[in-house]
## 1
Amino acid sequence: MEWPTPLIEGTLLKRYKRFFADIELADGTVVVAHCPNTGSMRGCAVAGSPVYISPSNNPKRKLAYTWEAVQRDGAWVGVHTGRANGIVAEAIEQGRIPELLPYDTMRPEVKYADNSRIDLLLTHNETLTYVEVKNTTLAADGLASFPDSVTTRGQKHMQALAQMVAEGHRAAVVFLVHRDDCERFTPADSIDPDYGVVLRKAFEAGVMVLPYQATVTQKEVVVNRLLPIDW
């Protein structure tokens, strides 16, 4: 995915009230950027970190900038959770996630299960593939993990995917590891052990678990490889 507008470099001063971040630009100007990440952002919201922000051309927006990425431990990390679905959809279109091929159509945000919405629904002849996307930013010592906070909603998603498999469909969860400094992936059991249990049960039920790593640059985000899983 190429960025729709050129990114601007800055330095994170602080993140606050979940949706706001103070960013200092190269000329010393301080701007308030929208933080499009409702999670804890554990390890990513560290004051003094280099960041990328994108400008908005919409005069009706309250905030003229959006926080897109942060540099941590030498790697750029994509923190804009709203971009994850589009990045994964593009990767599928480009054949970068072969486990989900072939497909004929792809539809986003389709209702299924118990009034939930699946991120991507792929069809191929009579086969349906339900794809949930999880933006993954947490990492330590080369090990990516999810989630970065307790997520009962995430547990519900895994149970719904397992239900789709039980009904004869295909299902997958793509953990978009939005940084390229990791070698493996694992459920974050120390943060949300219940999610780890549900994820493992979904995997045993036939849900594909696909942690795909992406490289973030000032020009684009590219999905590049599938990481091994430490169960």
## 2
Amino acid sequence: MKVKLYSDGSARGNPNGPGGYGCVLHYVDPAGKLHVREFSAGYKLTTNNRMELMGVITGFEALTKPCEVEVISDSKYVTDAFNAGWMDSWLKNNWKTAGKKPVKNVDLWKRLLDAMKPHQVTFIWVKGHAGHPENERCDALATAAADGDNLLDDVISEVV
């Protein structure tokens, strides 16, 4: 199965304001029919980077069997972690940056790695706010969630 996972995050007053994520999954079945699933949630106090990660995580956690997944995001934070080799370095250096500082959002990076395990994954960066229909939809979902009611608590567990 080939799946396209589109994702975006938003935070008001970043860092540490309300935020949200939006995720859209696309799957074309063997008969050529497009199946679309959308996800979003808002949080009381978070950061843009955490919301960027949560969008991708939510998409992966919605998949019920191994897939070939293209992650399409306007977040260099997410795409460069894999495409520029940051993740390999972080893992090799026990979750420390090149500057020997702790990697931020380790709880979510670990959750993402776990969610990705059964899948073949590629990460594609797209320019944000540039008219890409699915990226614009994810942005609308993320900002609506950030501005919505019943915001969740972003429970951060920075255990390495």
## 3
Amino acid sequence: MAQETILDPFKLWKAMYDKAETNFNEIVNEIIHKEAFAEWLGQVQLGYLQYQELIQNTTDTYLKQINVPTREEISNIASLVINVEEKVETLQEKIEDEILDKDKSVSAEIAKLKTNISKLDKKMDQILNYFKQMEEAANKAQAPSGAQK
């Protein structure tokens, strides 16, 4: 029984907290569910949006006066840079494709030239062999007449 007579401040505080929370919760729910609260909240939001617009306009005006680009101008420049990069990449791809096509045609021309040169080399060998045979025949024809003298 001695334990029941001792006052526990934590139990007292918890009981007060629970009761206050319940009352506060009821009051807040009543206020939130009223149409007047919704209208007031709409006015607060409208006021905030007007304030935000005023700040944006003031900032834009100030930035123009000190000759600094605004966020919108920087965004426009960024999009223009991206477009230029895409065009450069497209041109680079076209140039590379043309170079590759030219390389293929040049390679084909080189192959044709090699074939033609090897054919010419064979014909030149045949001509040289023919001249050697002619020279040997001429030497043989001259050798007997020179031996008779």
## 4
Amino acid sequence: MSSDDLYDELDIVRYSPEHGLRKIEDPVVRETSLRVFVNDLEVVVIQSLKHEVRELALGFLYTECVINDVSAVKEIEVNDGLHAVKVITSEEITQGKVPTVRSITSGCGAEVSFINPMQSNLFKILHSKETLKVEVILKLMRKLMKASKLFMETGAVHIAAFSDGEELIHVSEDIGRHNCVDKIIGWKLLNNKSNSHLRLILSSGRLSSDIVTKSIRGGAPIVISHSAPTRGAIQLAKDFGITLIGFARGSRFNIYSHEERIIQ
């Protein structure tokens, strides 16, 4: 799907000191309500781009601990007419494992600063001895911020990527920063990529605690963002062995946890 399929050209009025008020065509991103099912049980409605919906659905269900055995997933069906994705799995999915159907907007997800005790066994401390050079962090972030044609054309999406510490392996874009991270983790799961080849997550958006929990589930020991972290995100990163980096812009960045992985 090209970026042209993800936005519309709308007539608007723009003001600038050079031209005053004038009518122009402006690209505006389309968003859709994506319904996600596990077998026949509806789990969530996500406001998202109509792009990489398989990856989004699988990534969301995995990072939210609704499913844990990805090898048990038999099929992922997309129903364009209903704007729905059904993940069919042989894993036992009990009603208690699935939250009441809720809607997730593009602005934020479930802002939490703790791991649900009922799911704590699914979150592993990352004892990675990976190291990353300062110059590589800055280079990868520059690449990330130029990687989305849709962002360059509309300014209305977030971007996230998995990297092997040398190049961007996969880049996803969406109106929600949580969706971007779910998409790259879903892509990883669909493509059977091992943690050893996916060393870090890069993001354009704010690093809240739920972004960190998704990163823990994705097995990425280093998380880097163009934006700021929250206090809860920093505490989770410290507890679970994640190097958390924010404000990676230009020639500088801040390290909030496990700085031993970053070398000059």
